[in-house]
Amino acid sequence: MRGNDWLVTEDGKYQAGKPVREWDLLQEDYYLYRFLTELEYTVKQTKSEFEFLTKVRILVRRLITNSYWVRSKYPEPNFTTGTSVELLYDELGFPFTVQMVTFTPGTISNIHNHGTWGVVAILKGQEKNTFWQRQPTPKFNGKIEFTKELILSPGDIISFVPGAIHCVEAIAEEPTVTFNLYGETKSKERFEFDTTNHTAKNF
Question: 161 and 53 in contact (C-beta within 8 Å)?
C-alpha cells in the first residue's frame, strides 16, 4: 500500500519523510510479534526523536504491507459514538498502545495532543488533520493558534512528537479505518484544548 510519510512537530508544522520502496518492505512471515519485538528494540536503541519516528514509520509500513490480518482486523463502525477502538495487543507493563480505530463519516475529534509520540496509518477512508501550536499569554495559558491542515488517504502514515496538537475529521463517505501506535502516555502532558475559552485541561 503506497502512500506518503509525514512528521508533525510541536510548532504545528509538518514535513514529508523519505519514501520507502514497497518491495524493500516485503518479508515472509512478518507477524505482529515480530513487529512488537523490533519496535521495542528501536525505542531502546534510538535517541534522536526524528530518527526514531522515521524508523517506527518504516516498521508500521512493513507490518501493514505484509500482514493481511492487521489490515482486516478493525472494529465495526459505532454510529452512536462515532468511534470504535480495538486493541491489537495489551499486556501489563508493555509501554505501547497498539490499536485499530474506525471513525464513522463526519466524526470530529476534540483538539488535543497525546502526551507521547504517535504513529497513525490510514487503511480505509480519508481523514483531515488540523494542526495548532501553543501561543500562551499572561491571561490565557492554554491559547493555541491554527497552523495547517493535511488530508490523509489510504497508504499515508503520519507521526507526531508528544507536544504536537491536532484534531481529526473523518471526511470520506465510508468509515475511516486507522492503525494507531502510541508510546507510554505522560498523563500530565496530555491536554484537550478549548479555542473559545483558550484553556487546556488534562484528559
Answer: yes
Determine how many CB atoms are found less than 10 A away from the CB of residue 19: 10
The answer to whether residue 163 is domain-embedded is: yes
Q: In whole angstroms, what is the distance from residue 8 CA to residue 143 CA?
A: 19
Tell me if 122 sits within 8 A of 155, measured CB to CB: yes
CA distance 32 to 41: 14
The total number of structural domains in the chain stands at: 1
For residue 61, how far is the Cα from the chain centroid?
13
Look at residue 50 in the predicted model and tell me its pLDDT: 84
Chain-centre distance of CA 31, in angstroms?
21
| Predicted model pTM | 0.95
Buried b (16+ CB within 10 A) or exposed e, 88-108: beeeeeeebbbbbbbbbbebe
- Region of poorest pLDDT, from 45-59, 100-114, 125-139, 171-185: 45-59
Q: Is residue 196 part of a domain?
A: no
CATH of the domain at 142: 2.60.120.10
